[in-house]
Specification:
The protein is an all-alpha fold and 489 residues long. The protein is built from 23 helices and two strands. The protein has a two-stranded antiparallel sheet with strand order 1-2. The chain is elongated.
């Protein structure tokens, strides 16, 4: 009786007819599909093997959504936030697209952790699979790099300050730390050079490396073959094989369908928020990284001064080296988890530390009154910004020139009052806004003349905290100032 593999070898090599036959005669695509789909799996198909295909799907999704986002994005400190706000608020399905890209980054980290965990627990790194494991570790580092470089690109408050903390942590590395930080930032401070460097790394450099590593990873996997269940010999598989197609393909597609449904619902129900534009002068902002960097963020809090080299270099360096060298450290053929107590204890300890550090960071934030209040304030500011309609950028020069020749003499008088009282020092020429004061362009659409008059006479607590004094003018001057504000459209 012939095996499935022998049956496939006997498949007719006839190229076929029609369009598919024409393509096949010129590309040999049938042979490629047979090679891809008829991979032998020792012990048969299993749901434990679906994470690799899930990762590939998410990566393709990230590439596609990233291309569409890049069509609108401008990598500069002046325009980055505005273009992301335009995508989120004005582009049709832009918020959904951006949310799909942002949540896709988290999904990729989750599925990658599951894939590495399954490989580790199943002992699938054994049996001449050293290079396969090594390439997987590099891919994990590259994906974390993609997440880090992409986090800055919206250039809102959260992105700016979280990245500032991340790049500052690099400076703790002895001798070369400060140079690496300047290389990442493009100088001592963060600005357009920082965004452009992160954008190039996020869109070109790291994806190119990932494409190369994925191709190498797939090649090495096909070369070594599937490891099979935990009771299989890693060097000489003996269990009956089952072809990748059709059962394993259907299992992989089930995860893909689940990811599509879960990400789609999440993007629709809880779209990703965009906060106010980055303000480096804000000394009150409390930065917090994404969840996958939270353990590292908490870990760095425990190491200061001369001990920082231990927490930043020595301990993480030993851990990373041990993970990469795992196939060389564990040379036994035993793969069953219950027969590898040391390996399983080490895995449980690392996972416990990662989860524990994350929970500890959240616990401290919730029980520090000052931090909790500031974080709540920051969240409220994000929601307030998202509730406002999109406001396009307007240059101060064009606005100032346009306002010189106001058709309404009352508004022209209000413009003179606006400048005589130095309102433009905080709100900018033409009311375009500065770091010290919000923009007034479009305020007439949000407040009636009576509401503006009340706000000028009795500023809110938030306005007072920002340095806004009550405006004491006679009725004619107040009406002129309101007319000028209403002209800023």
């Amino acid at each position: 009786m012939q095996s499935p593999l022998e049956d496939q070898d006997n498949v007719s090599a006839t190229p076929g007819t029609g369009l598919w036959g024409w393509i096949n005669r010129r590309t040999g695509i049938d042979a490629v599909l047979r090679t891809a789909l008829y991979e032998p799996i020792p012990g048969g198909a299993r749901f434990a093997y679906i994470f690799g295909s899930g990762l590939l799907f998410i990566f393709i999704s990230q590439v596609i959504t990233g291309v569409f986002l890049a069509l609108y994005y401008v990598p500069s400190a002046d325009h980055a936030h505005t273009t992301v706000a335009y995508i989120t608020k004005a582009v049709t399905a832009g918020s959904f697209l951006r949310s799909l890209h942002a949540y896709g980054a988290s999904a990729m980290v989750v599925v990658l952790l599951l894939h590495l965990s399954q490989t580790y627990i199943y002992g699938a790194y054994k049996g001449h699979r050293e290079l396969l494991w090594f390439s997987g570790c590099i891919l994990f580092a590259l994906i974390l790099g993609m997440a880090f470089t992409g986090y800055l690109l919206p250039w809102d408050q959260r992105a700016y300050f979280a990245t500032a903390v991340g790049t500052s942590a690099v400076s703790e590395v002895p001798v070369v730390g400060e140079s690496i930080k300047r290389l990442m930032r493009g100088g001592t401070e963060m600005g357009t050079l920082t965004i452009s460097r992160f954008f190039v790394a996020h869109v070109f450099l790291i994806p190119a490396c990932i494409f190369s590593l994925v191709a190498s990873h797939v090649f090495l996997f096909r070369k070594a073959g599937a490891a099979g269940p935990t009771d299989e010999d890693p060097y000489a598989p003996k269990q009956k094989v089952e072809l990748f197609y059709p059962r394993q393909v259907l299992m992989d597609l089930s995860l893909t369908a689940l990811l599509i449904i879960a990400l789609g619902l999440l993007c629709f129900i809880v779209p990703v928020q965009l906060g106010p534009p980055a303000n480096p002068a804000d000394t009150q902002y409390v930065p917090r990284p994404e969840w996958y960097y939270l353990p590292m963020f908490q870990w760095l809090k425990y190491w200061h001064g001369s001990l920082s080299i231990v927490g930043i270099m020595v301990i993480p360096g030993i851990l990373v080296a041990a993970i990469i060298a795992l196939p060389f450290l564990d040379r036994s053929t035993e793969r069953r988890p219950w027969k590898r107590p040391i390996a399983m204890t080490a895995y449980a300890f690392v996972m416990f530390m990662l989860v524990g550090l994350s929970l500890r960071s959240q616990y401290l934030d919730q029980h520090d009154v000052g931090v909790a209040q500031q974080l709540a304030k920051q969240k409220a500011e994000e929601q307030e910004f998202m509730s406002k309609p999109f406001e396009p950028e307007l240059s101060s020069g064009s606005l100032a020139a346009a306002n010189v020749q106001l058709a309404d003499p009352v508004a022209a008088k209000g413009k003179a009052i606006f400048e005589d009282h130095s309102c433009n020092a905080c709100h900018g020429d033409g009311g375009i806004g500065t770091a010290a004061g919000p923009r007034l362009v479009g305020e007439s659409a949000r407040h009636s003349p009576d509401q503006l008059k009340e706000l000028f006479a009795h500023p809110t607590a938030k306005m007072t905290a920002g340095g806004m004094p009550p405006i004491d003018l006679n009725p004619d001057e107040l009406n002129a100032l309101i007319a000028y504000v209403e002209s800023l459209k």
